[in-house]
Amino acid sequence: MAGGKFMFVNRRHIMLLAVGNLLLAMASSWFLLPSHVISGGVNGIAVILEKVFNLEPMMVINILIIACFLLGVLFLGREFAVKTAASTLLYPLFLQLIAFISLPVLPQLAASIIGGLLTGFGIGLIMRSGGSSGGMDVPPLILHKYFNLPVSVLVFICDSFIVFGGLIVYGWLPVLIGLVSVAACSKALNFALQRP
Asked: Are 169 and 51 within 8 A, CB to CB?
């Protein structure tokens, strides 16, 4: 790699990482969490395991993020590692910054659609940079690399399984609202990945 070992980190990739993580923070902080929408990803798994096994959510989230990061490094390489590490720093930073702005809490269905669209578009921008948000989008990226299946479909399947896990605790209505969020996320992710 002739211009230095981090030539794959360019200004455009940094911008995609920053905007993508900002959108993820907005989705979580302003829409999904305040309206208690069951979503996919590590947060969804943590919420379910807390109710079922009384496990501390932050412990579960941290374990899953570390496990997914290591899987990504193993199967997706150094570029993935650098950009995903950047995401794990940017996301909490943006969460802290936007915490100073409060929006009205929306009804669950509206929050699930808006939060899902922002999440999908944010993940799509991060993936276009060559990285990951550092969570449950890593397994779909690995499957995409080896089986060439569409990433948006794989994310939809993965997140749907997680949301269906909420049936154990929450019942049908919150799960159906969560699936609306997952579908919106998948559509926005597909749109973001197809942009030039």
From this structure: yes
By three-state DSSP, how is residue 112 classified? Answer: helix
CA R_g for the chain: 16
Q: What is the pLDDT of residue 104?
A: 93
Total Cβ atoms within 10 A of residue 139: 17
Cβ neighbours, 10 Å, residue 30: 22
For residue 66, the one-letter residue type is I
- How many residues are there in the chain? 196
Contact yes or no for 116/7 (Cβ under 8 A)? no
Q: What is the identity of the amino acid at 168?
A: I
Report d(CA 20, CA 116) in Å as an integer: 13
Quote the DSSP letter at residue 30.
I
Give per-10-residue mean pLDDT for the chain (196 aa).
Answer: 48 91 91 86 82 82 85 87 84 86 92 95 91 86 91 91 88 92 93 84
d(CA 52, CA 143): 29
Please, are residues 129 and 16 in contact by the beta-carbon 8 Å criterion?
Answer: yes
